[in-house]
Amino acid sequence: MITFNSVTKTFAENMIAVNDVSLTIEKGKLVTLIGPSGCGKTTTMKMINKLIPITSGTITIDGKDISEENDVELRRNIGYVIQRIGLLPHMTIEENVSLVPRLKGWKKETYEKRVDELLDLVGLEPNLYKKRYPLELSGGQQQRVGVIRALAGEPPIILMDEPFSALDPISREQLQDELKSLQKSIQKTIVFVTHDMDEALKVADEIVVMKDGGIQQIASPQSLIQHPANDFVRSFIGEERVNRASRNKEERLASSIMKSLIQGNVPKDFPVLSQDSSLQEVARVILLNKSDGAILCDQTGQPKGIIEKNQLLHELAGIPEGV
Ligand SMILES: Nc1ncnc2c1ncn2[C@@H]1O[C@H](COP(=O)(O)OP(=O)(O)O)[C@@H](O)[C@H]1O
Ligand SMILES: [Mg+2]
């Protein structure tokens, strides 16, 4: 678990990059930091592996204050993936991926096995790719190697700063899918910076929306689009997504009934009943009202569907419609 306690970073007197951020990132979760350019995402992330020193506040990992940890030691236990890949061009894929395991003093057969496993994991045939140099791979393949290199030393935490944003849309989608399934199997804590809302909604367990160095909202993808905390979050998600989300399947049905009602397609004299009513009850109310059908609602009074007299007769008789 990574915990930020009132963390602030100022670069100069008037340059507050991160402002009093408190945040808990649970073990095994994939958390995305999202927000407009310059809002402090990268700075927030780089304070975790001490690439940027904190001005005030504390960051702890599993309860231990990182300021007391040795920088090099800390970074060996935190994988790091950046946008522009960052593979070492003069090393083969195998050497790149095994870098941290070798630094950690793993045995040759152990890290060689690990390299093969990881290449397999992202669909790169080990025997075909491990002896190649980074420039002999496509951008998407290089980025896959970047991701598995960050995993190689089995760090409990992985930081990813816009890792897929330089890729073409197809490779990006593929890598998002791979990351998601990878995370399910490896259960690492992943902090993922992006400015792409679709990407965040797709990969995140939890989304942290930032603006001007502060946190605007922390929520799961679903609850973020259903309940944006304020106008900034709402506009950052995009009105269209918010509207789309608020119309889940049932609500769409309800709104189509409402539309029919407005347009006069469903007779206004249809009685309204609870959707839990028995068919006999519905029949009784329809007969008493001399209507041709009824509207069924949920407990909150939201229309959920309509049932027509003819349909009801078929239901009661146990004879499918159209017979
Ligand atoms: N080394 C630095 N020196 C001065 N200002 C910086 C430095 N790094 C980042 N900043 C400023 O801090 C703010 C946050 O930057 P950053 O965390 O990189 O934003 P993001 O990743 O969200 O685009 C920006 O205004 C940026 O210009
Ligand atoms: Mg950045």
Summarize the structure.
This protein has about 325 residues and is of the alpha/beta class. It has 15 helices and 13 strands. A six-stranded mixed β-sheet has the order 6-7-8-3-9-10, with helices on both faces. A four-stranded antiparallel β-sheet has the order 2-1-4-5, covered by helices on one side. The chain has a three-stranded mixed β-sheet with strand order 11-12-13.
Give the N-to-C terminal Cα separation: 62 Å
CATH class of the largest domain: Alpha Beta
Q: Give helix % range.
A: 40-55%
- What do we call the CATH topology of the largest domain? Rossmann fold
Rounded mean pLDDT is 87
* Strand residues, percent: 15-25%
CATH architecture of the largest domain: 3-Layer(aba) Sandwich
Beta strands, count: 13
Question: Which of globular, elongated, flat, extended, rod-shaped describes the shape?
Answer: elongated
| DSSP summary: helix tally | 15
**Structural class, judged by helices and strands?**
alpha/beta
SSE topology string = EEEHEEHEHHHHHEHEHEEHHHHEHEEH
Task: Summarize the structure in words.
The structure is a single chain. The radius of gyration is 27 Å and the shape is elongated. 42% of the residues lie in helices and 24% in strands. The model has no long low-confidence stretch (mean pLDDT 87). The chain has 2 domains: 2-242, Rossmann fold, CATH 3.40.50.300; 257-317, CBS-domain. By secondary structure, it is an alpha/beta fold. α5 (108-121) crosses α7, α11 packs across α12 (239-246) and α14 (279-289) packs antiparallel against α15. The strands form 3 sheets. It has a 6-stranded mixed beta sheet, sandwiched between helices. A 4-stranded antiparallel beta sheet has the order 2-1-4-5, with helices on one face. The protein has helices at residues 41-48, 71-76, 93-97, 99-103, 108-121, 126-129, 139-152, 169-186, 197-203, 221-226, 231-237, 239-246, 249-263, 279-289, 309-317, and strands at residues 2-12, 15-25, 30-34, 56-61, 64-65, 78-82, 157-161, 189-194, 206-211, 214-219, 272-274, 293-297, 303-308. It has 15 helices and 13 strands. The structure holds adenosine-5'-diphosphate and magnesium ion. Residues 41-42, 193 line the site of magnesium ion (MG).
